[in-house]
Amino acid sequence: MATQDQRAHELLRAMLNKPLYAALRKPGDLGRMPQLLEAHLHWMIAAERRGELFASGPFTDDTSAPGSLGGLSIVRAASASHAKDILSCDPFVKEGVMTIDVKKWLLMEGGFSVAVRLSDQSARLL
Which DSSP string corresponds to 14-75? Predict the structure, then answer.
């Protein structure tokens, strides 16, 4: 009979175990945010299209403007230094609007669903 430790290792072995890099974005010089927002958004969309950006967005609450609390970006990269190199090209990071702290992160569990409608050629995440 398998021990509790062996059963846990079997569960872990079956999970995705996909290494990604999570960048905690911390507010810096937010006064420059409005003038750099468009460039930041264009850069993020391009990083997404290049396959570098897995997910990203600002932290929010009911009283603060988006971005003023920082945010989180999850990057596909070969190493933490590679992830930092990728993110250093973001105008917000390059110009000091945000600083980043990058950590290796293993994507283990979770899920998402996609609805595709053929009649109007639309798709959406559920």
Answer: HS--EEEEEEEEEE--GGGHHHHHHHHHHHHHHHHHTT-EEEEEE---SSS-TTTT-EEEEE
